[in-house]
Amino acid sequence: MTITFSSPAVQHANQGNFLDTPQLAPGITRFWLIRHALVEQNARLRLYGALDVPLCPDSLIAQRPMYEALAARLPKQARWLVSPLSRTRRTAQAIQDAGYGPVSMDVEPALIEQNLGDWHNLPHRDLSQHLRLAPHPFWSVSATECPPGGESMLDVCGRVGVALDRLAEAYAGQDIVAVSHGGAIRAALAHALRVHPETALHFSIQNLSLTILERLDVGWRVVTVNELPGI
């Protein structure tokens, strides 16, 4: 058996892609994905998906320390993106008001939550009678289930993946803060890791959590998932 060792030059080149310190290197295309804040209590009783529902006003006050932690954690020179739904813009504004400072935000339609079509506003308890497939244990529906008039998680992963590649090219070498949704962030992880959406649905993406992805020449890297600010 022959054992081949890489030359010192090759080993040194590979080290450029290692993450050995908490300090993230500048000049890398990096996405800071944040799930929006908790939505209003009555809205949570039903499937709201891509509907425009308000945030919970009490949580905006009670979770102020989390907004302050996010404001301190996020890079100061960054592009800010939100989905077309007001809960992402309101979350982004709360982070900026908590110490980050005002920054303009662009709307990125591809980062919206899964469209549940005719199932929007359906009480959670009534969903099972409409399903063709068994639901995912950590999502309302299977990744391959497509609601009438809506989209499956396969569809979500397709549009989010295309958007991430497009944005990575447009903002090469920059930091991008994107306030989005649980489904869209799981779709981003599926794209980065090249895994099936059914697998990506096993990730827990909590409200106000931070997920960091990097786009390097050699591919996507996942830096952190579901990091809760201040905890």
Automatic annotation (TrEMBL):
Pfam families: His_Phos_1. The lineage of its organism: Bacteria, Pseudomonadati, Pseudomonadota, Alphaproteobacteria, Acetobacterales. It comes from Acetobacter farinalis. Coiled coil: none annotated. This is Histidine phosphatase family protein.
